[in-house]
Amino acid sequence: MIANLLSSRMIRNPLLRVAGLLATVVGLSACDDSLGLRASLSVQFDTLSAYAMSQTPISFPAAYSAGSGIVVRVDPDLAFDVAFDLAGDGKVQLIPARRISSTRRVSGIPSATPRMGMQLVKGTFESMTKAPTGGYVYDSTFTVVPGEAVVVELASDACQFSLSQQLYAKLVVDSVVPARRQLYFRAVRDPNCGFRSLQPGVPKN
Asked: Are 162 and 63 part of one and the same domain?
């Protein structure tokens, strides 16, 4: 009798463990690419201005940090994701930080510059409500005209301890003032690691 009970438990327990693992996998799949995490922060909308990286004082902000939603100057710390420059004829170059240097300084310590992917938005800036899962071109300069939007995937330090290492954002240059080598742009960013929503509110998945 005891032998039969032990045998029965030995059979049932592995089956229960397998069933639990399958339920976990299904649950994660149902939660899209956010790996079952819950978002706690609202999608952020920014309206900003920056300067061209070339032919301007080094103290001028010529780069954008999608992780923090601010414009910063281009310096060896590389505390940004994309820098701006003017390509002529009103066009703007979007330059990933890794194209400027493969290493940066974090608290004075050299480290690898995170990669960043971009792709052109198919449609208008407003029509892109969720970042794609693929199709990004990594660490390549994009040249756009005002009104032409890009969607961005970046590896963020803020996500280094998260199940997903990526943050997503989109940006569009609205206008350029060549005489001042200045540009005005809008950006929308999801500060929740692994979430791809680009519309108002706290993402659901």
From this structure: yes
Tell me: do 146 and 73 sit in the same domain.
yes
Contact status, residue 168 vs residue 129, Cβ threshold 8 Å? no
- 70, HSE (Cβ side, Cα atoms, 13 Å): 7
- In terms of Cβ atoms closer than 10 Å to its own Cβ (0-12, 13-18, 19+), residue 92 is buried
Both tokens of 121, joined, read 């938005």
* Shared-domain flag, residues 106 and 147: yes
What is the C-alpha to C-alpha distance for residues 166 and 32, in angstroms, rounded to an integer? 14
The residue segments making up the domain with residue 5 are 1-30
Among the listed residues 156, 154, 194, 201, the one whose alpha carbon sits nearest the alpha carbon of residue 41 = 201
For residue range 1-52, list pLDDT tens digits in order.
434 433 444 434 544 443 444 444 333 333 445 456 789 999 999 999 999 9
**Within a domain: residue 158?**
yes
Regarding predicted confidence, which is higher, 62 or 16? 62
Task: Check whether residue 20 and residue 41 sit in a common domain.
Answer: no
Assigned token pair, 144: 């756009």
Query: What is the C-alpha separation between 93 and 78, in angstroms, rounded?
Result: 17
Q: Hey, what's the torsion of the CAs at 68, 122, 85, 69, to 10 degrees?
A: -10
Least reliable range by pLDDT among 102-111, 120-129, 137-146, 148-157: 102-111
pTM for the model stands at 0.80
